[in-house]
Amino acid sequence: xxxxxxxxxxxxxxxxxxxxxxxxxxxxxxxxxxxxxxxxxxxxxxxxxxxxxxxxxxxxxxxxxxxxxxxxxxxxxxxxxxxxxxxxxxxxxxxxxxxxxxxxxxxxxxxxxxxxxxxxxxxxxxxxxxxxxxxxxxxxxxxxxxxxxxxxxxxxxxxxxxxxxxxxxxxxxxxxxxxxxxxxxxxxxxxxxxxxxxxxxxxxxxxxxxxxxxxxxxxxxxxxxxxxxxxxxxxxxxxxxxxxxxxxxxxxxxxxxxxxxxxxxxxxxxxxxxxxxxxxxxxxxxxxxxxxxxxxxxxxxxxxxxxxxxxxxxxxxxxxxxxxxxxxxxxxxxxxxxxxxxxxxxxxxxxxxxxxxxxxxxxxxxxxxxxxxxxxxxxxxxxxxxxxxxxxxxxxxxxxxxxxxxxxxxxxxxxxxxxxxxxxxxxxxxxxxxxxxxxxxxxxxxxxxxxxxx
Length: 454
What we know:
The chain is mostly helical. Helix 6 (93-105) packs parallel to helix 9 and helix 14 crosses helix 15 (234-242). The longest helix is centred in the N-terminal third of the chain and has 15 residues, at 48-62. Strands 5-7-6 form a three-stranded antiparallel beta sheet. Helices cover 52% and strands 11% of the residues.
């Protein structure tokens, strides 16, 4: 009655016009409240003024009415807003929660925020939060904001403190973890099974997600720290990865990270070896590999596959170098890296039994072809000797090392004999490479007979 008395002139003008206007759902609800008292629903405690404010502002947010132009809307639009707001609020707290989720999902901001997404509805609630009958509405909105939006420490929402951080920005996560934002997104994407596009689109995280990502990260080692733990070279760590002894993972970059549990398992296997007080008939791992011309990675692979027995452990060394290998251990013959693929310069030199410098000279002179390849760990390009050019070269030439191996003669003695026989070497610019045409070697009779099986 106080409101009617306050606006009696406006009410009288409306009555004099006698313009018929079909009541909206909101207006019909208000009339029931006036005639019959509060209804048995979630809105029963609200005064009509607050009922109007809540329905109209929520409806404005649903209809996408810009907050800065809210006062310019006419009566017809306000009636529509009230209908939309009542439709949501009359169905109870769950309906309001689903509506707020839809408003958040509709946001175009890279980092949505509750005061922006809820628009006029949040602004009205914040202004009227002191009213005791609005506590149920305030509690629902407060709980939704805390659970679904990034919060700063000591933040207050609608005048209520936030009990604990539920969501945080990546800037906060970066400061807490000490890891970069891009790496954190990749870690979270991996542990939560997100696609690269999904993890890249993340704008916030939760303490639980961050904890899982940090726990996973703590179980990884980079190549340098892995090499230090195993007391080997980083290139040998890469070899162990290629052989499947160590597992690795990438996070969208060229860098590889090794699982720490694999490193610990390998070191535990070394510790489990029987300890020898002295070397005796054993050689340290590095010395054995050097004397027997076997790669460290290959020997470790054979050991892990159960093909090498009798290893022991020294007490004065660490990592894999603590392994002691019997001098008479039987290492199976190594397969020659037949060029079923392109070879590195070092592999090509080993395969053709010639020096690395000679391989480069043959390449530069056109006897061997080359192709560039991208190193997956460094993103640097390096040169490979093509397999087809190696095949073509072997069809026409034999190197001194190949001839010496087939003849079971020291290369220096064989080289002198070939020089005495006048067999020409391959000329590569100003340099002579000790490779010989097969036809020239064949003319030397005895030398060819000895090298025929090579």
